[in-house]
Amino acid sequence: MKAALIRWLEDHWYKEMYISAWLMPLSMLYLDAIRFRRFLYKVGFKKIHRLPVPVIVVGNITVGGTGKTPLVIWLVDLLKQQGYNPGVISRGYAGNAEDGLHVVRPESDATKLGDEPVLIARRAACPVMVGADRPAAARKLLAEFDCDIIISDDGLQHHALQRDIEIVVIDGERRFGNGYCLPVGPLREPPERVKSVDLVVVNTPKELLEGEYAMQCQGDYLINLLSGERQPLSALAGKACHAIAGIGNPKRFFDQLGKAGLVCQNHAFPDHHAFTAADLHFKDSLPLIMTEKDAVKCAGFALTDAWYLPIAAALQDTFAAQFLTLLKDKTHGQKTA
Asked: Is residue 135 helix, strand or coil?
């Protein structure tokens, strides 16, 4: 039922050209609530917490994945190259982090702490903390680790945490859908919110508008879920297989496999789907390909011919230069605020 509802909403938001008039009053109420909440922070009625280190927020203004996690990992690597000791905070979507604050380690259970935080801990090799209270998560991260800069994975709409740099990530294929806020459209905030952020990154853009930076997510080898064996993605070119994806835009992953020559039977699941063994068993012996984000939740199913595709973000050199310039300007060249 939940998956069917999500598919219906996505058809409505990204494919259908009409607007359901009966949902418009709800969308207007949602927009008013968003604006009123920002007003409360602006006038000081709700407290904004400033940390003793720079804070970078990587988020989006649409529901569903846009490619934030690969960008967060890329930023961690860039900051390490510049001599920083970055840490990452996250709410831990689809996990059980509401019961407190938790350190995420590469071996952590993604079903408890969230798929994206576990993936970041594995790939970025930096301290990661999850919790619904972002300021508290950031303070605990600073108390337990020697971090001098923090990246918030998501949290663009959570203004309780003061930020030095805001980066918004846009899905280059779907962008803002029909351009309306929830529940009529996929927007968490109106499109003009993008004008107030510091940097705009477009994942796999069809076109770039002024001031936007292109990001490509690249992957050319597969890793076996059980053994860790590697093989080139091209080794399966022309071969039939099953492909699963429980991410914000499964089509992007399926298209990537198709461009590599794989002949896949595609199986899309909702973003952050809690996979079961039954989801991954089919009536044949074809190889199974999945995203790395899904793999962190499926490693315990002991599938011998299941593989995942690690991806890495690639950005324009001009983005790195602009980001580092902004960081220097906003922190006066210091690693602490």
From this structure: helix
Task: Kindly provide the b/e burial profile for residues 124-161, where b requires at least 16 CB atoms within 10 angstroms of the residue's own CB.
Answer: bebbbbbbebbbbbbbbbbeebebbbbbbbbbbebbeb
Residue 114, amino acid = G
Q: Which two tokens stand for residue 258?
A: 């198709």
Which two three-digit tokens encode residue 76? Answer: 């961690």
DSSP state of 83: T
Strand residue runs (E) in 177-280 = 199-203, 212-218, 221-224, 230-232, 240-245, 263-268
Q: Report how far residue 282's alpha carbon sits from residue 289's, in angstroms, rounded to the nearest whole number.
A: 13
Half-sphere exposure of 325 (CA within 13 A, CB side): 8
Q: In what order do the strands lie in the sheet with 165-171?
A: 102-104, 128-130, 86-90, 149-153, 55-59, 165-171, 199-203, 212-218, 312-315
pTM over 0.85: yes
- What whole-number distance in Å separates Cα of residue 207 and Cα of residue 49? 37
Gap between the Cα atoms of 156 and 60, Å rounded: 7
Strand boundaries in the chain, DSSP class E: 55-59, 86-90, 102-104, 128-130, 149-153, 165-171, 199-203, 212-218, 221-224, 230-232, 240-245, 263-268, 288-291, 306-309, 312-315
Please name every residue paired with 128 in a beta bridge, in sequence order, or none if there are none: 88, 104
Per the CB < 8 A criterion, the answer to whether 121 and 141 are in contact is: no
Q: Which fold does the domain 25-215+315-330 belong to in CATH?
A: Rossmann fold (3.40.50)
Q: With beta carbons less than 8 A apart as the criterion, state whether 77 and 107 touch.
A: no
Q: Which residue in 106, 107, 160 sits closest to 131, CA to CA?
A: 160
Nearest to 57 by CA among 159, 175, 189, 193: 159
Q: Cβ atoms within 10 A of the Cβ of 198, count?
A: 17
Compute mean pLDDT per 10 residues along the chain, 337 residues long, and list them: 64 70 86 93 94 97 91 98 97 65 94 93 97 96 97 94 97 92 92 96 94 95 95 96 93 94 94 90 93 92 91 95 95 57
